[in-house]
Design brief:
alpha/beta; homodimer; 8-stranded parallel β-barrel; Beta_hexosaminidase_sua/sub (chains A, B); Chitobiase, domain 2; EC 3.2.1.52 (chains A, B); about 35% helix; about 20% strand; 2 domains; hydrolase (chains A, B); HEX_eukaryotic_N (chains A, B); 5-stranded mixed β-barrel; Beta-hexosaminidase (chains A, B)
């Protein structure tokens, strides 16, 4: 019985294709094909240098991955077939008929307007060893295709092979924004950790590294115009991203098809700014902190003060000028109104101007967003607490509020809104006419479920318990409870790592392969079957491991080698 | 306000002592003391080589840890005091007046009867630079003292110092068993990962590495008498612990004061044995697996068969002979009776012998435990499901049952029982007169809270959700709901890592510093304050990081530098 059983599952495995994210359209055969010892990849026209670099990385991957098939015997049963398998000696990249003739770099295309990015490609691999072809209408599309090509191959006794030739793929993403957010303020991550993360993001076709650079805990980014921000606000001199580091991160990302979305969270979450500029921060370190912030330390920009507004606008100008991308996040989450109530300076500013706090906030947002627009940037902000009761939304009684849903701000409709508090808020944001990115804590937060980190709480769980498993994220519906009109405002989604309990030692293990869930959801589209996805997710996890990433096992290896057998109903 | 605030917390920090586990009796002063450049540690009598090795490791740690104090400024405020601090040039180790004059190695003492181990020590460090002394009545006690000594020092600009001299410590553990369990069957861990884990265990005075070597998923341990067990049952030839590996692990552990408790789980959890010996395994790979096991794959030893019983006894003899410690776990958890009901061979065996399944189990246990006793080993077993309803405990209706509480077995009272299902079961086990180790899933399981790993379960949480935070474990009461008579049977406890979702990439980050919680609980005793423990746990976590361990941050660094400030009520 056992042997019949295994054969059955081997067959299922063939049908699964070990590609992540799964292409929109793929057909495969059952023939063995091996890579020739002198296998090469070439571009049939002038190519940008970052595309040629990607070609070289792809050759290195197919040579060095040496990933054995995730089936019982690790592919040994293919040995005989591989002895007579045709050899593939070349893959040729071409721009397609839809290309406009102006060759741009991957980097340039990755940082274009989000609606203007062209990521589709077609990949054809014959079963007879004749030339494979990859065609796209952009360098970025060719890069996505190279990435897919690099996932097709297994290794057995010196042979790099597939048993699914011929392979034909026509692919392009459903949503243009597919991101990962990393918080580098709660705990610091060396540049090498970020670069490694960008590599893995590119392997699953992600488009955006949302870099939550600073927060109340530390200000680790050098801003030459305001050197004291990091000199006094970082955790230490070895925990600062220099301007050179930032440039390195941005260019490394871009060459891998990834746009960096920088964030300077304001007006809340800014205690660390007060280390250098105490005059701009209200209720810094106020106690009990729980009255003035969602987590310690309390501290918010004095948004009613014109000097603070000017400072913030200048800060946004200075930082955004160093990021070539089009988008810049100004934060805007968890505004604590009680902090401003007890801050005498803010109360004096409001009295002098005759404005309500809401009006002052509007002025602050117009001025600071205006500075971004002057630099050609589109603002991105966090959403609001739509779940607050109507009677609680008064400015005087809401302790924690969000800019988009709780305040009557005159935000430009080109603003992009990150829905984070709850997936249930998305339709209200769309209804207001904002493009939105799904980043809800109930589906996308990678840090949930690790216990409470606030001290002196013996039995508390994390605020967003339970852990968001890959399966849970994968089954998210981006247009749930939306009208067709609302659904048009969804541009994608991201998984997020807030780092109260994370550092370099658990970055890979918390993120990978789990963040692959949203990468596939927003590339390949929702509604896919988790049971057929799991073998492919195992596969990309093991491939990540072969490439030096600390991805974790999702199941015992026994299960990974037997697709479907460890399903609940198997 | 902020500066007063910080001074206040710096004072709190001094009182906390950066030692884990906290000594039973410690007094410290407020004087600065630095290590001399030629600081040495010596033993004033003939010393075993493993003690001299430990001396050398301690010197390396105090030289290389270079841990900066976890306070704002990282100790820079001490710079002036350190310039005139007395220099400590030597620590001398001596056997105390209670020593019997027979010098034994750490290794020998670590593997002695659990009640016979002597771990206490006294450590005195004057504040004037005169000789520090460490005294104990055993090599093992001297080793514990060396470990504590290695945690006393911070680093600033080339100086290794304390600001708490004089220091006087008199220490010994409350409970003798303080363990960590690792499952190497669900996923495999290279020997280097185990050795690294043993190092860290020794830094928090742990006594026992409970090695759950094999299970249904794989059999990664070479048994020379039965070479096919690993040849066919391991995940692959590179995922087998050779006999040499086992010896290396055992001796590495022993030299660090750690006894290895090996486990061959039987009669359940044995599918992997069926790869080599299918005749001994009932319902191997039976489907649906959920009818026959708590997780896939199903498969249990044919306990009613005399050949299988003889085989198991021989296996225990062969494996236990290679472990010099006194204790050996035979498992015994999650026995599935339905499996035996459908297994025709078992039904035939029962019919032939005229025994009930319970009687057959008793015979099996007597024979297999007898083989251990012939090798001088004390058996250790898992506990039982006391939470089953009375009406469900019949042998015919209980699908999953445990040997100690559900069956009327004639287990020797020297048997040690691991309480795992629930902390509520401990008193019932003690009432039966068994020594017990606390290993309850509701407090001690390190793998809980990471989402369900069984396939095709989109929204399931892990079976033992939520995550067991260090705080939760730390507040465990080892004698809750016990009479004084019952409490005497508690010999300690352990935290456990089942590895369905773990591998080398997340071993350190799942275990450390969290497993320090039980290490301190069972060394220093229960009922301690989590708020004062947290700064010390931060400290040992950062020290682990300095020593190359992937321990995780428990909080933002901002909080770690400001003890108490991130408490809920701060």
């Amino acid at each position: 019985m056992a042997s019949i059983y295994l054969l059955c599952f081997a067959a299922v495995f063939h049908a699964a294709h070990a590609i992540w994210p799964i292409p929109i359209d793929i057909s495969t055969g059952n023939d063995a094909l091996a890579l020739s010892g002198d296998f090469t990849i070439s571009v049939d026209s002038p190519a940008p240098s970052d595309l040629l670099d990607a070609v070289n990385r792809t050759i290195e991957f197919v040579q060095n991955d040496k990933l054995e098939a995730l089936i019982v015997g690790r592919g040994a049963s293919y040995a005989e077939r591989l002895q007579t398998a045709p050899l593939l000696s070349s893959l040729v990249l071409s721009f397609g008929s839809g290309h406009d003739g102006v060759v741009k770099s991957i980097s340039e295309e990755a940082m274009a307007d989000i609606d203007a990015r062209v990521e589709g490609y077609t990949l054809t691999i014959p079963n007879d060893g004749s030339q494979a072809t990859l065609t796209a209408n952009s360098s970025l599309g060719l890069f996505r295709g190279l990435t897919t090509f690099g996932q097709l191959w297994y290794y057995l006794n010196g042979t790099t092979y597939t048993v699914e030739a011929p392979i034909s793929i026509a692919d392009s993403p459903i949503y243009p924004y597919r991101g990962l957010m990393l918080d580098t303020s709660r705990n610091y991550f060396p540049v090498a950790d970020i670069l490694r993360t960008l590599d893995v993001m590119s392997w699953v076709h992600m488009t955006t590294f949302h870099w939550h650079m600073v927060d109340s805990q530390s200000f680790p980014v050098e801003v030459p115009e305001f050197p004291d921000l990091s000199a006094k606000g970082a955790y230490g001199p070895s925990m600062i991203y220099s301007t050179e580091d930032v440039q390195n991160i941005v260019s490394y990302a871009a060459a891998r098809g990834i746009d960096v979305l920088p964030e300077i969270d304001t007006p809340g979450h800014t205690t660390s700014i007060g280390e250098a500029f105490p005059e701009h921060v209200a209720c810094a370190l106020a106690t009990p902190w729980a009255n003035y912030a969602n987590e310690p330390p309390a501290g918010q920009l004095r948004l009613a003060n014109s000097n603070t507004t000017d400072f913030t606008a200048s800060l946004f100008s200075a930082v955004s000028a160093r990021f070539p991308g089009k988008y810049f996040s100004t934060g805007g989450d968890e505004l604590n109104t009680e902090c401003y109530t007890i801050d005498k300076a803010t109360q004096a500013d409001l009295k002098a101007s005759g404005k309500t706090l809401e009006q002052a906030l509007d002025t602050f947002v117009q001025a600071t967003h205006g500075a971004l627009k002057n630099n050609g940037k589109t603002p991105v902000v966090w959403e609001g607490i739509s779940s607050l009761k109507e009677s609680d939304t008064s400015i005087l009684t809401v302790r924690l509020a969000e800019m988009v849903l709780n305040f009557n701000l005159t935000l430009s409709n080109e603003t992009i809104v990150m829905v984070w508090i709850s997936s249930a808020d998305a339709s209200a944001v769309a209804e207001k006419g904002f493009r939105l990115v799904h980043a809800p804590s109930d589906y996308m937060y990678l840090d949930c479920g690790a216990g409470e980190w606030i001290g002196d709480t013996p039995d508390a769980t994390s605020w967003c318990d339970p852990f968001k498993s890959w399966q849970h994220t994968y089954t998210f519906d981006p247009t749930a409870n939306m009208t067709d009109a609302q659904a048009k405002f969804v541009i994608g989604g991201e998984q997020l790592l807030w780092t109260e309990q994370s550092g370099p030692s658990n970055l890979d293990s918390i993120v990978w392969p789990r963040a692959g869930a949203s990468a596939e959801l927003f590339w390949s589209g929702p509604g896919r079957n988790i049971s057929s996805a799991l073998p492919r997710l195992h596969d990309i996890a093991f491939r990540m491991t072969q490439r030096g990433i600390g991805a974790i096992p999702l199941q015992p290896l026994w299960c990974a080698l037997r697709p479907g057998v460890c399903d609940l109903t198997a």
